[in-house]
Records
---
Amino acid sequence: MSSDQVLAPATESSEVPAEDRQWWKSAVVYQIYPRSFADSDGDGVGDLGGIAAKVDYLAELGVDVIWLSPVYPSPQDDAGYDISNYLDIEPVFGTLAGFDALLAAVHGRGMKLVMDLVVNHTSDEHPWFVESKSSADNPKRDWYWWRPAREGMHGGDPGGEPTNWGSFFSGSTWQFDPDTGEYYLHLFSRKQPDLNWENTEVRRAVYEMMRWWLDRGVDGFRMDVINMISKDSSLPDGHPHIGQWGDGSPYYINGPRLHEYLQEMHREVFAGRQGQLLTVGEMPGCTVEEARLFTDPARAEVDMVFQFEHVSLDQGASKWDVHPLRLVDLKASLGRWQAGLAEVGWNSLYWNNHDQPRAVSRFGDDGEYRVRSAKLLGTLLHLHRGTPYVYQGEELGMTNAPFQQISDFRDIESINHFAEAVAAGQSPDSVLIGLRTMGRDNARTPVQWDDSANAGFTTGEPWIPANPNHRQINAAAALADPDSVWHHYRALIDLRHREPAVAHGDFTMLLPEHEQIYAFTRRLDDAELLVLANVSGRTAIADQIPHAAQWENSELLLTNAPAPEPSQPRLSLLPWEARVYRRVVRSVIWRG
Ligand code: NOJ
């Protein structure tokens, strides 16, 4: 059925002034991965009660928004990103009543709560898919991507898959269903069938569900792989590159109808709503030019996107092929995004999330300079133009986990990759190197609340062990220590709230070719900020920056290191030192 008419356009309300709609420019978002945050009932899995008990902790840190990774009913094949009911809460996490209480507590502290929206796919246990699979002529058959075997092949035979696309979680993107003799598409696990957004009923059901949550009081959505919802329906083969599989991404990343769908979603769900909402689209493979379109307020698509360029710079042909990051590459990439979204659109800023290894282990020094380098990374991120996201435990400087063997891992991506790579002849030890460095479980070990058993995360057996370094690295110790990473993050968040140049100032990269120093300025009217960071374990001197002498004598707003010795040049930086200076720039107006 063609039914773009079924979804009537709504008109944008003029009642919320534009500045208020962009409240998120001066906001900081904190991501909670519920399984690993705090467990209130001793079953070893974090839950809503655990989050509710930490709302004061988050308010004290000063964050404005909490983004909850999925808490919906789910078989947990991909830790909740496989949803079997969009309108309820997974029992292991709590109940809808518990959710409402949490939302009220969050709102009561002046914070907002954003849900994860996972609508590229459902769980294969979602009733929509159960129906779709039940027969080839079921009315919901077309809600998913069903296709016969490749021409001349039999379903289920090797090579019979409708396309050669490789899944993000290893193997083919196609699963054969012997009962109906066809394959269904799953870009992720076989328990995550892709919804067919070409079908109007699918889109209508998704929008209805989104309105249901907004009516309940949530403040927006983080949209999981939202730039994969529009596929090239001719489903061509991809360029062969992932082992035996081809790269289908040109046919499902930023597909032909994506802008249309996002605009329709905006009209159907957000337009005319009162209140301050936030939408952020997770968009792997998104370029800065495309991001400008997605986040141009005049186009009414999403407020900001998560892009992946900067977290791919230390990877080769695949995410497991790890090599050292070159600072000049990082500056070139982030600098390009700053420039590209300077006039139109908006950046989201992140080092960490539940899919990335811990930033201090990846980009900093998680040994001798753990505290200082974690503060440096926070300083750099929060001082860029854009909305910063803090991932749970980042504010404590939590590190990667000491995983040894494959049985230490829980994540389907790591487990499947290990099996596939070893079956293809790679040595288990070499595969484990990639998993230890890039594996998503690094982000998923329990938040380290104190130095007691299981880091104070649970009184039971945690679903994944706490990092043994919780004896030293934990929230209780960090709160008690004014020099901790936590207090530095609080100061950064506070600075964004107090100093308009942080949220609204323009951005100029300095010393782009310098191999140790990351430096930039932010300017708003008469206020100019300078951020200087030595991203290395060796001292560095930043006297090449423009107006160095003036900066030397300007106000030092924030630093992560002791004041320089009087005998040292003021712009010499200790290993991993970061500073933020402020000066007032008086414009001379010629009145002759
Ligand atoms: C992106 C999510 O961040 C990740 O955790 C998940 O595995 C995939 N999308 C599939 O939903």
---
Amino acid sequence: MSIEELLAARLRPAFDQVAGGSADPAVRRSQHADYQADGALALARGLGRAPREVAAEVVARADLAGLADLEVVGPGFINITVQTSALHSLLLQMYADSRHGVPAVPSPQTVIVDYSGPNVAKEMHVGHLRSTVIGDAIVRLLEFQGHHVTRVNHLGDWGTPFGMLIEHLLDIGEQEAAHELSVGDLTGFYQAARQKFDGDPDFKRRAQLRVVALQTGDATTRRLWRLLVDESEKYFLSVYSTLDVTLSAADFHGESSYNDELADVVDELSALGLLRESDGALCAFPAGFTGRDGAPMPVIVRKEDGGYNYSATDLAALRRRCRAYDRAVYVVGTPQKQHFAMVFAVGEAAGWVRPGQVEHVAFGSILGADGKMLKTRAGDSVKLSALLDEAVARAAVLAGSEDVAHAVGIGAVKYADLSADRVKDYVFAWDRALSLTGDSGAYLQYAYARIQSLLAKGGEYTPGFSLASPAERALALQLLGFPAAVAAAADALQPHRLTGYLQALGSAYTTFYETCPVLRAPSADIRDGRLGLADLTGRVLTLGLSLLGIRTPTPL
Ligand code: ARG
């Protein structure tokens, strides 16, 4: 139980008595005391009584003996000061618990999380980076809460471009193609195919025939297609390993894996009367979606030529996921907001989706220092692997070894991505991402490394917590806020709530360290009590960062 919950649980009986029913104490951190309970204001309104009087009655009835002292202030707030002995025992409990106070959820769910989703024979772009990094943090948070999480990498591995890609593969030879793709020259490969497709009518014809051969299951064509997919998957896996992302080969579940279900999806939707023909295509028109002209907007389920598209595949995926999981989460950029809203609406009309079962976790773009979409100096879109290489190279200046440079460089990129409110666009700047003083991953990794060297110098000590000075108390209260921060980040699927917490923890620690000498403390007890605070801070930093997929190397 978090400290807020503990305080609320102890206050609730008094609130309920005064309310003659149930009333929320509304406990939160406070500028004026350790915590405050604001519930008397709403309760007084409901009862038609004076708020201060209601607050005083709550305080008179409340029993927080051994935990906290209460005081009515202002128009009817209740200030809460946690007793030092209670703080001490809460910290000891938190220290002894390997989860540092974060409870496992009482009823775990099966959750499927769709993230990363790059496209075969195409370079991953920064949108895929965000999906990969945010999705992986969400997976880690939910798993830590005890949910049963399935990762799914909805690879773009099907569609008309494969005709030209396979013909290009045949032109340059299998070995050369495999080589280009495995070293990550996906853009070069794709563009070469595209150029021939656009400029060479004979190639174009071959490519079109090849699409038909692929769709009808021609063995050679399928084998060549598989080669493209396999080589691309190998490359994506190498990016995941660079990124310290938990996606594995078993999680690839590309668009093509729904092929056999598409006709049945069409049958089911049409039996339900949800499909209409429009310009030869079969379409669903979910309620509430209209274009600028006010005309209903279609989800094309089967194209005029009988083929299927991205939406059809997503409908099949949705049906399968809703049958098999309590909850389905899609970590995909904001530009696909309408696509998912419409696909989900069709799924609801078909009775596949229960209320609250599916969620599009959208995110904005990464902008360069100029406020425009991140571009290289030459004006090209940034290649993901180049961005990551640059991160590691820049971090090498701060780091003592290759391993550490990797942890700091990759951590910087991931932290920058996770610390921004995901729905907004954010500006990426190297100096901020790698700053040792600001809101950065490097700052927290550095704080962690400093704590470890302090503990090494301190040697053996009897765990305890020194809580006499304001900086020590402030650090203690910040530490105790960890479970609530994890819950906030996991419940809203917003990793930035956890980075915000860790940043505040880093700064509470810095203030403590600057004002409270540890190794030269006035007594052995105080020294031990300060080492205890430093130790617990280090443990919370490393656990918190690990839930975001960021490492804490030592020494830095
Ligand atoms: N491959 C897609 C893209 O690059 C992302 C897939 C997202 N997942 C999904 N179920 N549609 O835009």
---
Amino acid sequence: MSATPPPEDHVQAGANVVPGGSTKDLPTPVLAPPLPVLRPNAARFGFPETFLWGAATSAHQVEGGNTNNDWARWEEMGRVRVPAGIACDHYHRYRDDFDLAQNLFHNAHRFSIEWSRIEPQDGVFSDEALQHYGDVIDALCERHIEPVVTLHHYTIPRWLAEKGGWDCADMEKWFVRYVTKVVETYGDRVRWWITLNEPVVQVFKGWIIGQWPPGRASDYPRAFQVLRRMMRSHVLAYHAIHERRPDSMVSVAQHCLAFTPNHPHNPFDLISTWWRGFLFNSLFIEALHTGRLALPGQFFERLPFGRTLDFIGMNYYTRDFVRNTGFTLPGFVGLSGTLENERRIGKRNDLGWEIYPEGLGQFLRGFRRFGLPILITENGVPASNEDDRWGFIYLHLWQVMRAMSHGVPVIGYLYWSLLDNYEWADGFTAKFGLIGVRYPSLERIVRPSARWLGEVIENRSL
Ligand code: FCB
């Protein structure tokens, strides 16, 4: 999964400059003069002045009142514990929430546009919704917070789900029509775009384990078909965005899950660990980067274009242990989880996921091979205790700092999430927020860790 880190003497003052001599007009992170040294063992490490600091959210998880998408239908079918309902009512309270983010020194914010609001019926665009997200973007810009816009964060409109959604061959066409409308409307104000959030996770949950819409289980043929459709949709969206905003920065948010063999010396577990890592963490972005989708022994396909990532968007949370279950494709992919390995794993978060900051460092160093800037688009912890949350953030930022000091071009860190929110099938129990949300009043409580992170941002130093 990870490449060997470069030797220490590789560290150089220009370590944050985009490698490969990219000609893109990036806001290349430059080192501020007083803090030029980038060695982990140096007295002070300075995050670049242009580093993007902030938090992330997604529409269905925070806005409230999203009743016209496939996830709302899923909720009505009783497939999840609780519906999102009013969530954090962020749809109406975004200005106050952004005030809090600004006070915490955030200079970037990732949020998603809800497709079912923008296009509530096939081909019908809502002026009201277009106005709303324009206001959201303006509210961020007024607070000097850079908007990072996700175009698709799992949910699709009902009318689209009824036509088959990602299972339908026309999906690429519908996606590009929606993306084009959005970029034509906001392209003057938005430079940073995430086309798809965690496509591999979505396919895994929706087509392999059936936990999320459309609820298919073990449907490997369709799962691969959907993945390919998502890749082509990204490629088309990438070009639609760049045509309208040539200096835009476009990527996907790739979920990165660290994997370790269940039994370290079992060769089959080792093989499955490689397979799972390749499928979950590499396949999608390798294909977008190279323009070739290659699954050894399964298929090979050329995408319409390569090089459709301007940066790598990375979501990182935890690691799993992988157990081989046989010699078919599913067997090679194996099963993963943390439960069999109680004795070897460390602390867990409130959802039972292992806290494994080293994994972030491994991914950062490994993804250096793409020669692209890396934006951490999500990293966070559900914690009922603030020491745990701060420990998590600090240890992960430490990994970021170490990677940067080895020359990995990390350009920003967006914590998941700004607010306690609706965590899909897990409902409202997971407290991911820098800002707590008290129910039922929906009162916001700025947590201590939010302030401690604010100090790091302000001082540009851990
Ligand atoms: C990520 C999702 C995000 C949220 C966090 C906890 O995988 O992108 O919506 O659920 O996990």
---
Amino acid sequence: MATPGAVRSASENEAWWKSAVVYQIYPRSFADSDNDGIGDLPGIVDRLDYLQELGIDVIWLSPVYRSPQQDNGYDVSDYQDVDPLFGTLEDLDRLIAAVHVRGMRLIMDLVVNHTSDQHPWFLASRASREAPTSDWYFWRDARPGTVPGEPGSEPNNWGASFGGSAWMWVPERGQYYLHLFDPSQPDLNWDNPDTREAIFTMMNWWLDRGIDGFRMDVINFISKDPEMPDAPLNRDGYGDGMAYFSYGPQIHAYLAEMKRRVFDPRPDTYLTVGEMPGVTPEQAREFTHREHGQLAMVFQYEHVFLDADGDKWTQRRMNINDLRDTLAKWQTALGDSGWNSLYWNNHDQPRVVSRYGNDTTYWRESATALATVLHLHRGTPYVYQGEEIGMTNAPFAALDDFRDIESLDYYAKAVCTHHEDPADVLDILRRRSRDNSRTPMQWSAVPGAGFTTGSPWIGVNPNHNWLNVAAQRGTPGSIFEYYRALIALRHRLPVVVDGNFVAVHTGRDQIYAFRRHLGDTTLTVHANLSDLPVSFDRDDLTARDLVLTNYTLSRSGPGRLEPWEVRVHVR
Ligand code: NOJ
């Protein structure tokens, strides 16, 4: 394995990922080399110099495996091949080599809570109870006393994440299978040791190919309560089964087995990050514990749910106190023994500058302020493609503009089944749809945004005419250059990586302030997370100690911050 340049690592066995910055690529929307409208692996290779200039250490590649693409690759039909949409296995080998040559690393998405319903394991399993993979999925009989296959005869009342029942009837088997997401994504039965064995073998095959770790899709869902009881009802009339599968009885055992079988026997250290909806800070600390944890870090959801009211399709105003308290709570709870992942955006979240920032009047200021507080927390920061230039939500005009299976399912259920007003449903999709983050990367102002010269699979945001890489790269004061400075700060100052975290109370709601301490060094962040200027009791901070700010010509005195102004002091 190549020794990374920027990552401080004395030995391969150190937790090198603690000083790393990760960049997530959603391949379909990043760079399209053959101009068929869909991004691909050679397109990524062409853009590696850009990522190196940004200063990132690791690329997380969203799924490029063979897939029917019902959920844009999160429905895998062959874990050991590349979908022709994105290129070939040889293209991926070339990408891995090109990443390593530049001193960077690459982790793959691992989608093993479920497969595609077109995976050979599932095709065989659904065809016969005698098949070797018969028991690799969750098959259950109809509820006793009901007519199998009729509504209401599902084994329990759980709803699926993408709407409807979590159970699908298969006449050939005379049974239902469980799918916590779309019916095309049947859940794998991890309780069967053969299933686990096949997954671990596949993971080892990838590590042997030279990748540097995995981002593990909804990995906390792999152990289900074997009783699978009915659950309290959600707004949509289905049971919320989270309590029975988000922290199941075997979750620690299965992840520990994975660690033993896949990672422990190897001399190198890998980045493992588990996506864990619903995880609590206490659970996260255990999963990532320095001594007995099973993963390097997890993705929690609490801070990206603060503008939702109960479920993801109801919007409320995010309260700044909640945001501050939530961020600080996770910092403190994981403390010295666990490790946080730090993120605002990914392919499932609307763009943060449009959600928690101000994407009009204070677009640049709020994008850089939010970046600052995130990157200067304790943990490993993740940048989602386009975040580094302040990409915003998209102005979707009509239902036809959306592509995401979750959004389209929601619209169909809300409008056709629950007879909600189509205009209201479109409005909430515009704010909350995952497609907001999936519009093509904005490289330049030309038609197609430099992403493609063909017809893009999802519309390019019209604001690419001014919001694009070409306009910002090398431009003093741009969001891109600010991200570079922020990433460089992490690489330069050990206090950013290893310093402990202490929240600071300024007595002003809209200010988020904290300190990081390491030895004799103290780093202090003051961030005004609002559209209004604010004064506060002056700290003993001096201009001499200022290492970073997003206002080059601040009119403010020492005890005052302009809208979305941040100041970082080190002494
Ligand atoms: C989480 C992924 O991030 C999301 O995109 C996907 O739809 C679900 N898991 C199901 O795999």
